[in-house]
Amino acid sequence: xxxxxxxxxxxxxxxxxxxxxxxxxxxxxxxxxxxxxxxxxxxxxxxxxxxxxxxxxxxxxxxxxxxxxxxxxxxxxxxxxxxxxxxxxxxxxxxxxxxxxxxxxxxxxxxxxxxxxxxxxxxxxxxxxxxxxxxxxxxxxxxxxxxxxxxxxxxxxxxxxxxxxxxxxxxxxxxxxxxxxxxxxxxxxxxxxxxxxxxxxxxxxxxxxxxxxxxxxxxxxxxxxxxxxxxxxxxxxxxxxxxxxxxxxxxxxxxxxxxxxxxxxxxxxxxxxxxxxxxxxxxxxxxxxxxxxxxxxxxxxxxxxxxxxxxxxxxxxxxxxxxxxxxx
Length: 328
Prior knowledge:
This protein folds into two domains: 3-152 and 297-315, Triger factor/SurA peptide-binding fold; 173-275, Chitinase A, domain 3 (Roll). A hairpin with a 2-residue loop joins strand 1 and strand 2. Helix content is 56%, strand content 14%. The protein is an alpha+beta fold. Helix 9 packs across helix 13 (280-310). The protein is globular. A four-stranded antiparallel beta sheet has the order 4-3-6-5. The chain has a three-stranded antiparallel beta sheet with strand order 2-1-7.
């Protein structure tokens, strides 16, 4: 999986929302664990998994807080071990790589970096926290490529067997998409929101009347797709964030439409749709990716068990029964 596709999925963080910062004000910070003499604090547990912990408490009461905290802590211990491994290998993420990844997120979603920052902060997530999470994802990707990937091989026989088990159902819809982006100002009042909606409707009206998408994008688009005349490329179902994926694949070809999100309004046109052939050769890459990702997950689990046994790990957070499961 490319770094762009891996990180693009993270845009859903601020589309769906991840506002647990208020909870951190009620956390009395302390050391939750030490991993080879590097500490993990309780506030880090809530930085990463505050929503997960509070959801567990909401569902099962306060008795669920300790096991939920320990589940998140286990994930942080794994991250710390990965961080120490890549530091040893000298392959950590640079600032330039991080900035490029964020710019890729922005470009794939018709925004620039400032618009991504505004969208993240509008959902209650601090920009530096967002950057930290992006860095962790890139760090893990480097770790997987350098440490785990060499352990994974997939033979043609395995591919054929896996294909037969699917019944040839791996094909899916692909949409060629044109789009333009109009941002909603942060803290926009009713008047400002109405103005943005009116601008989107004006763009939609011109497209519906037959104006070339490139001309309308040049006049109206506020995102990165403007440079390409609104041409966003081809997307398979499920590749876009959910708030956009559903409307795009429900739309008719050649009928422009509007999708409004909390931070922006998009005007889209599906230029074409096609269904991929489900023959083995046509889905070889997708099937290989599915098998590869499962193998990588298995290898990471084995690596973590070995690394944790070899490390000096002291869990100081009270209330957990054993290690327990890791949070999603």
